[in-house]
Each structure stands twice: as structure tokens, then as C-alpha cells.
Amino acid sequence: MRLCADVGGSFVDIAAFDDAGAIAWRRKVPTPVDDWAAFVGVFADALAVVACERVSIATAGLFDPVSGVVTSANIRCIDGRRLGDELAATLAVPVRVVNDADAFVLAEAARGVAIGHDRVFGIILGTGVGGGLVERGRIVSGAGGIGGEWGHGQVVHDSRIAPGANPVFACGCGLVGCLDTIGSARGLERLHRFLHGVDVDSLAITSGAEAGDARSVVTVDYWCDLVGGPLAMVLHAVSATIVPVGGGLANATALIAALDVRVRANLLTPATTPVVVPGRLGEDAGLIGAFVAGG
Predict the structure, then answer these.
(1) Which of 109, 239, 254, 265 is the 20 to 30 Å CA partner of 43?
(2) pTM of full prediction above 0.70
(3) Distance separating alpha carbons of residues 112 and 99, to the nearest angstrom
């Protein structure tokens, strides 16, 4: 048996997998974001219920596979810690840690919509924009654990001729004009406000566009323009053949289908079947990715 967890800013989804890779036990508890002892207790309590030989964790935030250090703004008690080593010392079992976006892509490549693809670039379109790259069943990481993180770095610039004509927003990373500021659910809302001067939530925008609401259609079309080009460039750079989508916007199937059309229009090698597709595993993806990453 192996204990696996998907650690987010709100909840820890934790489960025991049997040797066949099926979930045999599961619970979901609030994340103790500021209490390290309570965080450790989540895993200790689970191990007291189900005896497991090792632990695998998919966590929000950056994970450096070289140093083992996690950087997490939302889960402060693990920020700056060598999470795997520190948990292993307390729990007395080996602990493997991966980034949650990487876990999502790994899961979709192993058991989801990307089965059969050698190189998979998965994206998260939720509160922010994230991503991960998997090649032949292995996570491709980079310096500091930022492999596949395509949400940061300026892609939108202000116009010198007509200042304010382009949607340049400050990003939480400290830069401006990042894809994260326009490609996420909050970014879709910012674009709608930029274009129409009104505040509307992302769900209303996506459902409105599907229903033919003129303003929502314009916003979604503009969003596809701004996100589709950079995504096509990433696919050219990494030679991925499919893009599973996770996060809240993945539930807006018409939006993702529209993004797929825009991305394929920007590809140098024509694709006759969808490339950008909603993930298949839903809320199980993080747990399954943690399990697969654990080997």
C-alpha cells in the first residue's frame, strides 16, 4: 500500500492505493496552512489508519527536485522546507514530492486523455496559469523545478503609440503582462472588465459566450487570441502532441474547444484532431499523479 496526497491551499486530499493502483481508502481534510505540526499530523493520522510503506505527495507551489525545497505562498507552513526529507524523518517512511501541475500531466499521460502520446504538455487554467511537461512517462523539470511553468514572463506589452490600448496587468510574481494575468479565470474576468467596463465572473462569461451573449463572445474570442499564440509557440518548442487542460476553466468545454481551434490555426504542422482537450481524471488527477510519480 502507498499513501498519496494532493495538497492544495484549501484541502489535503489523501488516499491509500493498493498494489494494483486502485484507491482503497480516502479522506479529505482542510489544509493546516500555518501549522507544521498539524500538517505532519494529517499524514501521521492517515498512516495510523492504513499501514503504507511509502508516501507520495503532489503539492501546490514550486518544488525544486535538486534541493527538495518547496516554495509555497499559500501553504506557509511548508514554504522553504525540504518537505520530503522532513516528513520522512518524522513519519519513518520514504516520501516523494512533486509539483501538483506536474502530477496532473503525469496522471493524464498515464491514465487519462493523453494515453499513447510520448510527449505531453499539460496546462492548468484556474486561479492562475500553470503547466507541466511529461516525456515517455517521466516529468521533465528544470532549474528550480520550473519546467513547464509557462504562465510567467511578459507576453503583453503596453503600446507606446496608444498607452492603455493593450491589457497589461501586474502579476503576483512581480512582473507585468504575464500570461497568468490574462489566461486564468481571473484573467478572463480582467479582460472582460478591460473590454466592457463591467465585472462579471468567469463562469458567467463562458456560459454567456456559449449562449451567444455579444460581450461574452468578444471576451472569449480575445482571450483565445491572447492565449492561443503563446500556447502554440510552447508546443513548437517542446514538440508535444496533446495538451490536457485542468483547473476550473477546463470545465468550460466550449471555451477549451475554441482555444483548441485557435492553437491549431497557429501550428506549423497541421493537426486534424483536437490538441487542446479537457483532462479526463478530474479531481483524482493529483492523487493519481502522485501515485505514478512514486514509481
Answers:
(1) 109
(2) yes
(3) 18
